[in-house]
């Protein structure tokens, strides 16, 4: 799994560096959020109504990993760069599923209230044959615990 992620990152970096175009984001994970809590309160209905997505992306002019939680229906988002704070951990299950845990500081900005801050983020990405799953834990400045569960459907291997 580590080799796959490094290869994907290297490919994105080469593609981005070679393009020389205006700043445009390169998205490499786009998860549809299907379940979530905020301080143990179920916020799933609101997340589904808002069509919440968590997206990991880069801008073409640099190699800084970014994350955004985007409410598609309202057009609002929290976004900003991620700084890795701990080595990622990788494992594989007996079924061949790959699990990666990543730890970040997220320098976020809310576009709906202009709040900024630094949140602790743990992103667990589980790669299965049919989909890629996300378990995202976020602890922002106010020390709430936000947990999102997301899915990114995969094209079947032919």
Coarse shape: globular
Counted up, domains total 1
Helices and strands: which structural class? alpha+beta
What is the typical, i.e. mean, pLDDT? Answer: 84
The radius of gyration over CA amounts to 16 Å
SS element count, helices = 2
What is the tally of beta strands?
9
Q: Report, as a whole number of angstroms, the end-to-end distance.
A: 20 Å
Please identify the oligomeric state.
Answer: single chain
Main β-sheet: number of strands, strand sense, barrel status?
8 strands, antiparallel, barrel
Low-pLDDT windows of residues: 1-21
* Strand order across the largest sheet: 1-3-4-5-6-7-8-9
What portion of residues is helical? Answer: 10-25%
Q: Describe it for me?
A:
- This protein has one domain.
- It has helices at residues 2-19, 44-50, and strands at residues 25-38, 41-42, 52-59, 66-71, 76-92, 98-110, 116-127, 131-139, 146-153.
- Strand 6 (98-110) and strand 7 (116-127) form a beta hairpin.
- It contains 2 helices and 9 strands; from the N terminus they run H-E-E-H-E-E-E-E-E-E-E.
- The chain has an 8-stranded antiparallel β-barrel.
- It is of the alpha+beta class.
Write the SSE topology.
Blueprint: H1 2-19, E1 25-38, E2 41-42, H2 44-50, E3 52-59, E4 66-71, E5 76-92, E6 98-110, E7 116-127, E8 131-139, E9 146-153
Antiparallel strand pairs: 1-2, 1-3, 1-9, 3-4, 4-5, 5-6, 6-7, 7-8, 8-9
């Amino acid at each position: 799994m580590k080799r796959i992620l490094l290869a994907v990152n290297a490919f994105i970096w080469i593609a981005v560096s070679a393009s020389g175009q205006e700043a445009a984001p390169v998205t490499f994970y786009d998860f549809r959020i299907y379940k979530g809590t905020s301080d143990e309160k179920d916020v799933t209905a609101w997340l589904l109504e808002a069509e919440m997505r968590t997206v990991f992306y880069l801008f073409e002019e640099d190699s800084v990993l970014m994350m955004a939680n985007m409410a598609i229906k309202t057009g609002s988002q929290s976004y900003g760069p991620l700084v890795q704070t701990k080595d990622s951990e990788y494992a594989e299950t007996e079924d061949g599923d790959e699990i990666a845990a990543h730890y970040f500081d997220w320098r976020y900005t809310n576009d709906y209230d202009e709040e900024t801050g630094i949140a602790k983020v743990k992103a667990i990405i589980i790669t299965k044959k049919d989909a890629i799953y996300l378990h995202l834990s976020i602890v922002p400045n106010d020390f709430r615990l936000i947990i999102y569960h997301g899915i990114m459907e995969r094209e079947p291997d032919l």
